[in-house]
Amino acid sequence: MNTEEKIRKQLADNPVLLYMKGTPEDPKCGFSRNAVNVLSGLGAAYSYVNVLEAPFIREKLPAVSDWPTFPQLFINGELVGGSDVVCEMAEDGSLKPMLDQAGGAA
């Protein structure tokens, strides 16, 4: 399985998936921390991939998603966006219904 196939499998297998730097318990950048805080604040159930420990995914994902930076939040295989987009959607109330629909909210 090549890297792109692995990414597509991860997206297919995880309704809510955050590609981030670090882990939810120990984010390694402020943008990843912001995304984790938003998802935790909404009670979201989500999976994550630490791109710092997955250099091939870190290198390939921007070409797959057409999004250059991390974190990247996907819901039902579709890119939602990075930290700023996730924060804005949480503020305007549009993120929680997407998480609920995906089974990613408690």
TrEMBL record:
Domain Glutaredoxin: 16-80
Keywords linked to the UniProt accession: 2Fe-2S, Iron, Iron-sulfur, Metal-binding, Redox-active center
InterPro entries found in the cross-reference section: Glutaredoxin (IPR002109), GRX_PICOT-like (IPR033658), Monothiol_GRX (IPR014434), Monothiol_GRX-rel (IPR004480), Thioredoxin-like_sf (IPR036249)
Keyword S-adenosyl-L-methionine: no
Cross-referenced SUPFAM superfamilies: Thioredoxin-like
Signal peptide (from-to): none
Protein origin, superkingdom: Bacteria
Statement: the UniProt record of this protein carries the keyword Metal-binding: yes
Family, as annotated: Belongs to the glutaredoxin family. Monothiol subfamily.
UniProt name for this protein: Glutaredoxin
Organism expressing this protein natively: Amphritea pacifica
